[in-house]
Amino acid sequence: MAEVNNKQIVLKDNIGAGSPKESDLITRVSKINLNVPVGPNVILVKNLYLSCDPYMRSRMSKYEGRYVESFTPDQPIVGLGVAKVLDSGDEKFKKGDLIWGLTGWEEYSLITNAHAHGLFKIEHTDVPLSYYTGLLGMTGMSAYAGFYEVCAPKKGEFVFISAASGAVGQLVGQFAKLLGCYVVGSAGSKEKVDLLKNECGFDEAFNYKEEEDLVAALKRYFPEGIDIYFENVGGKMLDAVLANMRIHGRIAACGMISQYNLEKPEGVYNLTQILHKRIRIEGFLVTDYYHLYPKFLEMILPYIREGKIKYLEDTAEGLESAPAALIGLFSGRNVGKQVVVVARE
Amino acid sequence: MAEVNNKQIVLKDNIGAGSPKESDLITRVSKINLNVPVGPNVILVKNLYLSCDPYMRSRMSKYEGRYVESFTPDQPIVGLGVAKVLDSGDEKFKKGDLIWGLTGWEEYSLITNAHAHGLFKIEHTDVPLSYYTGLLGMTGMSAYAGFYEVCAPKKGEFVFISAASGAVGQLVGQFAKLLGCYVVGSAGSKEKVDLLKNECGFDEAFNYKEEEDLVAALKRYFPEGIDIYFENVGGKMLDAVLANMRIHGRIAACGMISQYNLEKPEGVYNLTQILHKRIRIEGFLVTDYYHLYPKFLEMILPYIREGKIKYLEDTAEGLESAPAALIGLFSGRNVGKQVVVVARE
Question: Is A51 left (phi over 0), alpha (psi -120 to 50) or beta?
């Protein structure tokens, strides 16, 4: 009987406000039998790469009315990953297939309702497999949908991106540059600012922690105002952006990471600018745009092969490093997409 | 020489924050010669009806970055009105035409650049002329554009309207009912609440001044949440609405009257709901939609003729009553569209 160890990352209990801690997550070893045939609509996978994403913070708490459900205490947490199918009871997948989508933070996962789960079969393997946790997965699709679909950008427009060195922000900036926009990003360290300017081709970037007056900082970089704001931060930054928007400006709200750990969110005061400047703010969730995935791949794969997209990964080796990798996300420790390597094949 | 008296309402000086007062406006009598031929692109009009609109508050102050310019001190203030053309140097208009659009708060106005000024010739006179200051003018177009174009409503959706007894709010509610939506409005007095329920056909209405907890009040009227919010108020009401929105909800921001007189606007705290519920908020200005005016008339004129639209006017007689009428708007004195009758023909 091929019962093997199955290392898992488990949530101790749903947490309240405040920064999550590594100790909120427990590493334990369960057993799993790899030889029991899976039932209909179930697949057994070996997890290869796991993605650390900001939205996972919400799932650690027990909140009502969120767009994702809370993690279940004492169960492996769930996130996006790349995995190899070991056995399949789902007609869409077969043994040996590589897939990306929602899986468990463990070495092996039984994924029930695989079809409905939004798993994608990986068809192109001439690019790094880990990219499907980000650039070729939800991260890339978020940047694509948020920028092209929500922001409706035009060549020459003025684009600002907060948390720009994050996985989605870097991509949005590069998409905007490829379209011929003027692009400025904010980030939280000199290292990240340098990355944006020197590696990602942003026109400008600044460290928001060094700016006493965010309204003035944005005015400096956008003397004529901002056409498009790709919002990852919320709170004070959103307020400062509102004061600097141009008429018919668009704000795609992808995240508001500055607000997730607060007991009470920050107030935003400049909302009358929505009227004065006829601004559109739109929150979006990438899953609403997954039908565009083939169109996205058609655009992005040539860019990747031609080296036109700079994509940085911050790789943590081994499932045991996963808690630190995830928690680090909320203190801005990572540079680029945070990936956990569970196994390389 | 037909020099006649020309009574005028003049702004004493641009005002700061706080409620405007009647004494900020001065009534004076100038002279105008009605027999001097007007130059090219100029028309001379006799003003018949003037419209009091909330946005005029902004023009009384001297602010930068507004969507309208400040009123010029010691000059007649400017607003929407219905007028009769006495002489025309503009090919689009001829003597005897009735028009609606921007005109001066005075008995007679010389309108320069009439063509560019966005004046509309009145073609249908089987309905009350005063309606062109509101229902058939900017008010009606605001309701039409904001509801149909910005909110993209569907039959059966849950619609909330703040300042619902105002000119635009009443109409939006009726459009929503005609489409088959569930409609609730808020207003600031029992009289207004009764009007909404008994005259305008709203499903429900409530007096926001009697609600200690706006979030709870909205939850009571919308146990399943709000699909569409027609925003006239801003601040605390917007915050409470955000907490009650449904997934893919839409907010059309037409005004934020609660914020105009504040030294510092109120903070709004629930903006992360934009993400959680994938909400779209969009500020709009009716002038961006004036190309739809013929389409709007096509819809609204039959409704008016068939008595399917309830439209209330609050009429002040004589130009000398205009300052009180305008100032009353900001304390919620009026019920329905505030019109000043300068002359009936």
Answer: beta
- Is the same domain home to B150 and B272? yes
- Residues of chain A in contact with residue B276, where contact means CB-CB under 8 angstroms, are 65-67, 283
Look at residue B301 and tell me if it is in a domain. Answer: no
Q: Does this complex have an ipTM over 0.90?
A: no
- pLDDT tens by residue, A242-290: 999 999 999 999 988 788 778 888 999 999 999 999 999 999 999 999 9
Q: Pairing relation of β-strands B98-104 and B108-112?
A: unpaired
Residue of B267, B278, B281 lying closest to A284 (CB–CB): B278
pLDDT, mean of residues A204-232: 98
Whether chain A has a CB inside 8 Å of the CB on B247: the answer is yes
- Are A147 and A253 part of one and the same domain? yes
B230: distance to nearest CA of chain A, Å? 13
Both B56 and B142 in one domain: the answer is no
Q: Which range marks the domain in which residue B12 is found? A: 3-134+312-341
Residues A171 and A237 grouped into a single domain: yes
- In the three-class reduction of DSSP (H, G, I as helix; E, B as strand; rest coil), residue A70 is classed as coil
d(CA B159, CA B250): 10
Label residues A222-238 b or e (16+ Cβ within 10 Å = b).
beebbbbbbbbbbbbbb
- CATH code: domain of residue B7: 3.90.180.10
What CATH number is given to the structural domain containing A144? 3.40.50.720
Each residue of B153-192: pLDDT tens digit? Answer: 999 999 999 999 988 999 999 999 999 999 999 999 999 9
- Between positions 185 and 244 of B, the ones with CB within 8 A of A are 234, 238
List, in order, residues 6 or more apart from A221 with CB less than 8 Å away: A160, A184, A204, A206
Q: Both B59 and B117 in a single domain?
A: yes
Q: Cβ B277–A67 below 8 Å, yes or no? A: yes
